[in-house]
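Subject: Interface between my chains keeps coming out wrong

I've been trying for a while to get a sensible model of this assembly. When I model each chain on its own everything looks fine, but I need the whole thing in one frame so I can look at the contacts. Pasting all components below, labels as-is. Any help appreciated, I'm running out of ideas.
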Amino acid sequence: MTGSIRRWQGIPSILLLLALWQAGAMLAGSRLLPGPMAVFTVMAQETASGELPFHLGFSLARVGIAFVVAMIVGTAIGLVLGRSRGIDRWLYPWLIVLLNIPALIVIILTYIWMGLTEAALLIAVAVNKIPSVAVTLREGAGTLDRDFAEVAQIYEFGPLKTLRTVVLPQLAPYLLAAARNGLSLVWKIVLVAELLGRSNGVGFQLQTYFQLFDVPRVMAYAIAFVGCVLVLEAFLFRPVEQSAGQWRRQP
Amino acid sequence: MTGSIRRWQGIPSILLLLALWQAGAMLAGSRLLPGPMAVFTVMAQETASGELPFHLGFSLARVGIAFVVAMIVGTAIGLVLGRSRGIDRWLYPWLIVLLNIPALIVIILTYIWMGLTEAALLIAVAVNKIPSVAVTLREGAGTLDRDFAEVAQIYEFGPLKTLRTVVLPQLAPYLLAAARNGLSLVWKIVLVAELLGRSNGVGFQLQTYFQLFDVPRVMAYAIAFVGCVLVLEAFLFRPVEQSAGQWRRQP
Amino acid sequence: GEPTAVRVGILKFGTVSWEMDTIEAHRLDEKNGIRLVTSTYATNEAAKIALLTQAVDIIVTDWPWAARQRAEGRSLSFFPYSKATGMLLVKPGSAIGALSDLKGKRIGVAGGPLDKSWLLLRALSRRETGEDVASSAKPVFGAPPLLGEEFSQGRIDAVLTYWHYAARLQADGAKLLLTVADIVKGLGARPDVPILGYVFLEPWALQNREALDGFLRASAEAKALLARSDQEWIRLEPLLGTSDPKVRAVLKEGYREGIIERWSGEERRDAARLYDILAELGGEALVGPARRLDPAVFWPSHSEWGGQ
Amino acid sequence: MKIVIRRKEYPGREGARERCILRNFELSLGQGETCAVIGPSGIGKSSLLQIVAGLDMDFQGLVSDRPKPVGYLFQASRLLPWLTALQNLEVVLPRSRGGAREWLSRIGLDDAAHLYPSHLSVGMARRIALARALCVEPRLLLLDEPFAALDRDTARQMQALVREEVARLGATLLIATHSWSDVAALVERTVTLGGAPAGIVEDSPVRQRRAGE
Amino acid sequence: MKIVIRRKEYPGREGARERCILRNFELSLGQGETCAVIGPSGIGKSSLLQIVAGLDMDFQGLVSDRPKPVGYLFQASRLLPWLTALQNLEVVLPRSRGGAREWLSRIGLDDAAHLYPSHLSVGMARRIALARALCVEPRLLLLDEPFAALDRDTARQMQALVREEVARLGATLLIATHSWSDVAALVERTVTLGGAPAGIVEDSPVRQRRAGE
Ligand SMILES: Nc1ncnc2c1ncn2[C@@H]1O[C@H](COP(=O)(O)OP(=O)(O)OP(=O)(O)O)[C@@H](O)[C@H]1O
Ligand SMILES: Nc1ncnc2c1ncn2[C@@H]1O[C@H](COP(=O)(O)OP(=O)(O)OP(=O)(O)O)[C@@H](O)[C@H]1O
Ligand SMILES: [Mg+2]
Ligand SMILES: [Mg+2]
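Reply #2:
Try treating it as a single job with all components included. I did that and got this:
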């Protein structure tokens, strides 16, 4: 099977999901669960009016920046903690504290200090997300095989080449898990941050329509983002996953 | 170093964190960032009045149940998807959709369908959390070494013994990452679920005091939970992590 | 026999909880042949979910929402609770003295762009200055507590927020520019048009007519008590959510001013007029399929109920 | 036991075509028979053993009447790295049987009981893997290059151990090896693989050198 | 190069005391000298090579004048499993040098270029690991049981390859082995380890059998 076919292999599954959703909506009665038709109609309206692209664009930009920053910083912290007992002893408890402080509080505090600004949002989201990436990568760093590190040492790979050819391939599954979970987490935190103190973005719209109990619109916005993630899955995460795992001895 | 000393080794780090926080609070001025003294005073008041134990108890019970259920179900799903290409092709996209649907929406919809019941809360939280565990464990399952599976097959371990002696030791770092991230995620979702439809629990209190902008109280409730997690770290996750990793060839 | 239970969803430190507490303290529910059961929720949305899932019988919210839900098939009814909703505040000593001064300023708006007070303010500014504040000024939407903080720190010039949040800012010296009642008056409607009210499912109301009437009587009696007795407010102190006596005083004032004196056919007609304004500005996003106000949303829907 | 492999292919990977490794391989082994498979590196000895063990089912052909239980010394010992030497033996033994400690002393590694595999020398790990294969009292014993990692004296002791156990259990023995010492010490028959894809190029009894050893 | 190991201990683990493996080990090797370390399984040969390579610094003693670069054939090949055979060679070669393909054909594995290590036979992986150790043009070559996994013919070819490269590069060679064939073919000096903790029990030149091979 070639890569490009694999890329689209999720489509039947998504179609099935839509069909099930439609059936469920028809059974439940549209008032309780708006079906995909109702939601897509609303989505089309909101797209035509320019509202959805506008707000989705803001949210995507925020998610994108916060995600990249959080992945890089979180991976770095996780690796350091996973490799150095001494630093781990001092910083790891902080990580756990940070990990378990509700997003709400971090967001409120950053907004209070920095005002209702874009920078405050990005910082709040990154602070919420970094511990989660770091915890996952810390576990990954703990499994790095010294045997291979010694190969790198003997053949004098130097830090960068070691990272690229020895460390990252071993961390690939952890990075993928952190990236997928991370994307969804960043997105959820961006929503909260938007609904608490921004005047645009999907979270802001969700809050508005949630107050009105306009479930189809709420779902339209959420699903627009989910669609973006599915595209990212097909074009980024899936291919990376496949090429990162093909050396394993598997059926 | 014996286990019991290791268990307490996080304490100096936490004390340092408190000291830094106090210093920061004194610099920032108490209105912007209440210091640990202020927060602990409030915490003592709320404990004396019985409010904090009451609400924290409810939240802990919810977190506990949802966490255990989500870990078990999520691990099972993750393993199945990670091992079976066919099922993965059909179910994995659903997982990604579920992973990226905002907690808010899942919670609202479950409440609307099932009413404002405890069961609805638990289901909503589990549905939010299961995909995240599953995604992590799916990556873990992808790294399971067939060499060892063959050993289990030759010596006829049977499914249960294979799981215990061959699969779980390989998955330990993934389980730990999923558990730590999971606990914090369950807790955050429980907060949202409580503020959207329960009359008790930390989430309910947080939102109430947020509306009054009583930041010390908001922090007191959050920190009480963080304290519980730190205890869990010291008595459960840390020991498990240490015993699960000691066979590795590491400095 | 057993008095019927009436389940009311409230917020812990919300104004409704004061009234309910007064009812319970004076056993006004028993006197009116009902048993009051309150459930506390953390947010307005939680209370709405509770109503729609019939976890409670009555909540307090605004009538445009009830009207919209009704148009979407959930037959909700509305009975007025208070006309106190929002206030537009500016900094003490601020140069802003009228709507026209808001031009180019940052205005914090609680509740988002479809908030009723905000829409009415926009309508009024159009009528008075010919410009829509939404475009002439810079609105900043956010959670009310955060907007309060932004305002205190001087990062926004004015704030349009719910009156009990405004109370705290007023106690800190913020200057009241307009109340929503002023705005309504400015739009040519009677100032007694309520914005908030008890909302319940009509079928429930029809089945439990006596209980509902009993509840509304108890509510009216509690309001009357709170309006005349300062003693009551001392009892309520723990529920006001503040230890600042200045804020308490403002809250008491605000509550009393919100009490509705008239609820006649004229107020209903004015309500319909306001609804048209909201529908025009908020569009379908706000009102959904209910382009016009269905008068049946007001309880009781057919008799000419004359008010208190 | 009858082994018939009409065709064994490995799937092609990027840049490499599907490769046929074994073809028209047929071998019958009576219960208690001992046989060595010989052939150069990469010819398919380990692949053959995987098939005989029933681990690899992806081939055209059939393995019938496989005796049970099977003891398999993999070429890369495959001790479970998260279990100590002792636990690695205990884990394959039925709880009731026990005897893991005795096995450790039979291979001369009492001291290593509590070491994890990553702390063992390669030869030590090899011996523990051998003990693991023997301690289940196999009726079919598959040994893949069993003593290559061992020095001559240790290898001799281990050969003796295998001979003794195989005789005691009446086990069928199949060894993949390139050591003539193994052949001489342990088997009565050798099968030589050759060609590409590989098949049997020679199947001959071993002159009884055991006595003269 | 001078190797002085006064004491090498491994830390104790649960249920096992700290163990001293090597004691009073002293060895000087001139540049270009070839030497084999001999001793029974588990005595400490691999531990010694790790120290000589500079990978294990946790011992009392000193390794001075270590020639560079080092080529090290680990006892468990340690190919990077996520790289193909070819990439495993390329990764150790400076980009400019190249020559990975030629090395593959020198060890007779052109066909295996695009296979991952998990798809190689043990002997094939061994040869690639050997090529990896040689292709960096080492001045110090450490080989840990280099040919144990290979059949006799392949082993002979590889021995020849090593001999040729060592001679060409003037490299110092240290082999841990238990194969007399390796000793005869490759080294001019053997050091025998013995005792517990191990030390040198014999240090003797090899009678020149190379010619008679
Ligand atoms: N990382 C380690 N931790 C603890 N003990 C170790 C470690 N590595 C090796 N040992 C111990 O050191 C001793 C020597 O091991 P080493 O691998 O050097 O032996 P060797 O001479 O190479 O044996 P073989 O011929 O079997 O490869 C063994 O008893 C082994 O258990
Ligand atoms: N999982 C696999 N996928 C693809 N090819 C494989 C796989 N396993 C083995 N091969 C190929 O099959 C051939 C035979 O391998 P095998 O391990 O059976 O050889 P062997 O005779 O045991 O060699 P050695 O003596 O070196 O162990 C080799 O060419 C190898 O590349
Ligand atoms: Mg083999
Ligand atoms: Mg060794």
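Reply #3:
Confirming on my end. The interface with chain B takes residues 13-14 of chain E (CB under 8 Å).
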